[in-house]
Design brief:
The chain has 546 residues and is of the alpha/beta class. It contains 18 helices and 16 strands.
Length: 546
C-alpha cells in the first residue's frame, strides 16, 4: 500500500470528465484510512454509543428500516467492492445511521463526516502517520417521517437513503462547487445526487454518473485495491452516449458504459472493461486497433486503440504481443496463431520482457538467450519439419510465399539463403527479419508488400480473436485446419477490404466447427464521437482519432 501524503487528503484528484468531477467531493477519503486501509467498513444502527459530537435527539432505525438499509449496503458492496460489516457497538463503527429531526423543513436526509490525521514529522517525510474517519447518515423523522419510515427499495425513502450514502462515500451535489453538471444533465436519471427529477419514478440504484464517479474513487475492487484513487490504475468510466475516452501516460482501466465509443489508452498498460461475458462480444482487428462489438447488450461498437487488455466478466483477452505472435505464425507457418499458441507465446514473451514490435524483436534475438530459444522453437517444431523438408532456398521461397504471396526475387533469395547457410541467421529469425524488412522498404514494391503484410496480420488477428469456445479451440487443430487457414490468408491482397473480409474469416472458422456464428457487423466508418472524456494529464496537442 503506498503512503498517504497530505496532497492525497487535501487535493481532489479529478478525472477530467465533467460527469465524474461534478460529483466528487472532499469526502471522508475512506481509501486513506490507516497506514494500510482495512478490507471493510463497519456500520451501526446503535445510538447508545458512538454518536456524533454535538448532535442530539438521535433515534434508532426501526427493524424494517434496518433491513432495507442492509439491502442498500449489500448493493453498495456490489458497486464499490467495499465490504460493509454491521456492528452492534457504536464505538467501533465507521458509519453511524440514525433518525433525527433535521432542523430545515425541506431537508429529508443529511450526511456528515469527521476526519483526523497525525501531520508529517518533517518536511522530508511528508506523509501522514495515520488517518481516521467517521461518517454519520441521518434521515428526517419529523417533516418527512411518513416517507422515511418506509425505506423499501422503489420508494422515496430508499432513494433518499442512497443519496445520503452517496455523500458518505464522497459524492456531492452536481450543482455545487466549482465543477457543475450542465443544467440539462442534472437530474436523478443520471445521478441520485441531483435534486431534480424528470420522471415520477423513484430509483433503487445509482445513476450512470454516480457509478462512474464511484469507479473513479474506489475502482470497484474495494479499499486498497488495484483500481481507483490511491490504487495502481485509474478507472475512467464513460456514459451511454457515443464518446471518445482518452487515457494518458499512466496505467488505466477504461469503460465505455454503453454507446459507440473510441477508447484510446495512449501510454501505459491499459485495459478496457466490459460487464458482459466474453462470448457475448465479437473482437475484430482493424488497422487502428481492435473493434469490440456487443452482440446481446447495450455496449455498442467500440474502437480500442493503445489498449493492452480487454477485461470481461469471466475472462481477460490480452492484446500484449498479439501482433508479434501473429507475425511469427504468419511468417513461419503461413497461418494465424491458434488459441493455445497465442496464449503461450504472449506469456513467454511477457516473462522475457521482450520488445513488442517486429523490428526490435528481430534485433533482440541475437542478444537474449531466452528469446533466441523461444523463437527457434518454431524451427524445431513438428509443423516446421513437415512444411519445410527441403534446402534453404526452398525454405526462403516458402517464406516469401507466406509473407508476400509471391516468389522471392533473385537478390533476396541469395541474400537470405547465404545468411542462413553461413550460420549468421537462424531460419526462425529469418522469417522475423524478412517481415520486419517489408515495413522499411520504401520502394513501390516495398509499399505494396507492407500493405499486404499488414492486411495478412490483421486478418490473422481477426481469426484468432474469434476463437472463444472449447469447440472452436479444438476445431482449429491439426494439419487440415491449418491448411484451411493458410488458404484464407492466401486470399488476402494489398487491396483487400478488411471489413468485407470478415465474412471469409467467419466462414473459415465455421468450416471447422459448424455454422455457429454470423459475421461481425463492423461498419466501414469508425464510431462518431459526440463527446470527449479526457483522462488526467492529457495534453491538447496530442493526436486524436477524430
Amino acid at each position: 500500500m503506498p503512503f498517504t501524503f497530505l496532497s492525497d487528503i487535501k487535493n481532489l484528484r479529478l478525472s477530467g470528465a465533467n460527469h465524474i468531477d461534478a460529483l466528487i467531493s472532499e469526502g471522508p477519503d475512506w481509501n486513506f484510512i490507516g497506514i494500510s486501509p482495512p478490507t471493510d467498513l463497519r456500520y451501526t444502527f446503535s445510538v447508545a454509543t458512538g454518536n456524533e459530537d454535538g448532535q442530539r435527539g438521535q433515534t434508532a432505525f426501526s427493524a424494517a428500516q434496518q433491513a432495507a438499509t442492509r439491502t442498500a449496503f449489500s448493493y453498495l458492496q456490489q458497486v464499490t467492492g467495499i465490504r460493509f460489516v454491521e456492528t452492534q457497538f457504536g464505538t467501533s463503527a465507521d458509519i453511524h445511521l440514525a433518525s433525527i429531526d433535521i432542523p430545515a423543513a425541506d431537508v429529508t436526509g443529511l450526511s456528515s463526516w469527521h476526519t483526523s490525521y497525525t501531520p508529517p514529522t518533517s518536511k522530508y517525510l511528508n506523509y501522514v502517520l495515520d488517518y481516521s474517519a467517521e461518517a454519520y447518515v441521518y434521515i428526517d423523522n419529523v417533516e418527512f417521517r411518513a416517507e422515511n419510515a418506509d425505506l423499501t427499495p422503489g420508494g422515496a425513502g430508499y432513494e433518499t437513503l442512497l443519496h445520503e450514502l452517496g455523500h458518505m462515500l464522497g459524492l456531492k451535489h452536481p450543482f455545487e462547487g466549482g465543477i457543475k453538471l450542465p443544467y440539462e444533465d442534472d437530474h436523478t436519471d443520471n445521478t441520485l445526487m441531483s435534486y431534480d427529477a424528470i420522471s415520477p419514478t423513484y430509483h433503487s440504484t445509482y445513476g450512470q454518473y454516480d457509478l462512474a464517479a464511484l469507479n473513479w474513487i474506489y475502482g470497484g475492487d474495494g479499499l486498497g485495491g488495484k483500481y481507483g484513487a490511491h490504487g495502481a490504475m485509474d478507472y475512467l468510466t464513460g456514459t451511454d452516449a457515443d464518446e471518445v475516452i482518452k487515457g494518458d501516460a499512466d496505467n488505466e482501466r477504461l469503460e465505455g458504459a454503453g454507446g459507440n465509443d473510441v477508447i484510446n489508452g495512449y501510454g501505459g498498460v491499459d485495459e478496457a472493461s466490459y460487464k458482459g461475458l466474453r462470448a457475448d462480444y465479437d473482437i475484430t482487428k482493424i488497422a487502428e486497433g481492435y473493434v469490440v462489438i456487443d452482440q446481446v447488450g447495450n455496449d455498442g461498437q467500440d474502437v480500442l486503440v493503445n489498449v493492452e487488455k480487454v477485461v470481461f466478466a469471466d475472462r481477460t483477452v490480452n492484446f500484449a504481443y498479439e501482433a508479434v505472435v501473429q507475425a511469427l505464425y504468419v511468417g513461419y507457418f503461413g497461418r494465424a496463431a491458434d488459441y493455445s499458441g497465442m496464449q503461450s507465446f504472449q506469456q513467454q514473451l511477457g516473462a522475457l520482457n521482450a520488445p513488442d514490435n517486429l523490428r526490435d524483436l528481430a534485433s533482440a534475438y541475437s542478444k537474449d538467450a531466452g528469446l533466441h530459444k523461444l523463437i527457434d522453437s518454431f524451427a524445431s517444431s513438428a509443423e516446421s519439419a513437415a512444411l519445410y523438408p527441403g534446402n534453404t532456398a526452398t525454405f526462403i521461397q516458402a517464406l516469401y510465399q507466406n509473407v508476400f504471396g509471391r516468389a522471392a526475387d533473385a537478390a533476396g533469395l541469395g541474400f537470405w539463403s547465404k545468411a542462413i547457410d553461413s550460420g549468421g541467421l537462424s531460419r526462425a529469425n529469418a522469417s522475423l527479419s524478412i517481415m520486419a524488412g517489408a515495413f522499411d522498404n520504401k520502394t513501390a514494391q516495398g509499399v505494396l508488400d507492407a500493405k499486404l503484410v499488414n492486411n495478412k496480420l490483421t486478418v490473422a488477428s481477426g481469426f484468432t480473436l474469434l476463437i472463444d469456445t472449447p469447440q472452436e479451440v479444438q476445431g482449429y487443430g491439426g494439419a487440415a485446419a491449418a491448411a484451411k487457414v493458410r488458404g484464407m490468408l492466401g486470399g488476402v491482397t494489398a487491396s483487400t477490404d478488411l471489413v468485407d473480409y470478415q465474412a471469409t474469416i467467419v466462414a473459415t472458422l465455421n468450416g471447422m466447427t459448424g455454422p455457429a456464428r454470423a459475421a461481425a457487423s463492423v461498419g466501414h466508418d469508425l464510431p462518431v464521437s459526440h463527446a470527449e472524456l479526457i483522462g488526467v494529464g492529457y495534453q491538447s496537442w496530442e493526436p486524436t482519432l477524430v
